[in-house]
Amino acid sequence: MAEGREPRRGFWRENSLTFFFGIAFLVVLACQAVAGQAEFNEQLTVDGLEPIGFADYLVSSEFAVDVTENWQSEFLQFFLYVFGTVYLVQRGSPESKEIHKAGTESEAEQRMGDHAGADSPRWAKTKDWRQTLYARSLGTVMGGLFVLSWLAQSITGTAAYNDLRLRQLEDPVTWAGYVVTPDFWNRSLQNWKSELLAVAAMVVLSINLRQRGSPESKPVGAAHTATGVEG
């Protein structure tokens, strides 16, 4: 092994964080489907209708809207956080950049253009629209995923809402009619507030609290006022 090179630890080990959360997501999604079917069938029984099978529930608008309403709040959280942390800072938090670095920073600090290294992404080395696009690609994609998941929630929510109205012998509403209903905004806002609260709690609590070995925490012995320092 060449001096100074770290030994490879295997594909699974080097990608364990992604695999853990990916598998955990699928497990929780499956559990949500089971619980959701049971709850939905209870509602159907109360309404005097026949319960549906698991496969039918998986392709139902009821399941789809429950899934997408959580997705859009998560992507909103990261979209706001990615863009917000460019200019907004919190003294003493590892979730914030250093106070004097607020803003987009210089090309030298960002290793762009003439300051790019040999291992820098190809588009970071350019000086045209590709660099501009790549320099904002993370926030742009997060924002796009939020818009798409919001749209998916509104469409599936319309179908689920109309299913309920039909069971109650009421006329269905259009998509435009649904996105101004209390049902739609109650579903959206209750998720948004929980995500924003979680981010605010992480930013503030990480000022004085520590988790040894975590990049989301400052080193255990770091000063409470240390900002932008990760463990």
Q: How do you describe this structure in short?
A:
With 231 residues, the protein is mostly helical. Helices cover 60% and strands 0% of the residues.
Biggest beta-sheet profile: none
C-alpha Rg (nearest Å): 23 Å
Tell me the number of helical segments per DSSP (H or I, 4 or more residues long): 9
Morphology: elongated
Return the structural class: mainly alpha
Distance between the termini: 28 Å
Q: Approximately how much helix is present in the residues?
A: 55-70%
Strand content: under 5%
Overall pLDDT confidence: 89
Count of beta strands: 0
H-E order: HHHHHHHHH
Poorly predicted tracts of residues: none
Would you mind describing this structure in some detail?
The chain has a domain at 69-99 and 122-231. It has 231 residues and is mainly α. The protein contains nine helices and no strands. The relative contact order is 0.11. The longest helix has 31 residues, at 16-46. Helix 4 (61-87) packs across helix 9. It has helices at 11-14, 16-46, 54-58, 61-87, 107-110, 129-134, 137-167, 175-178, 182-208.
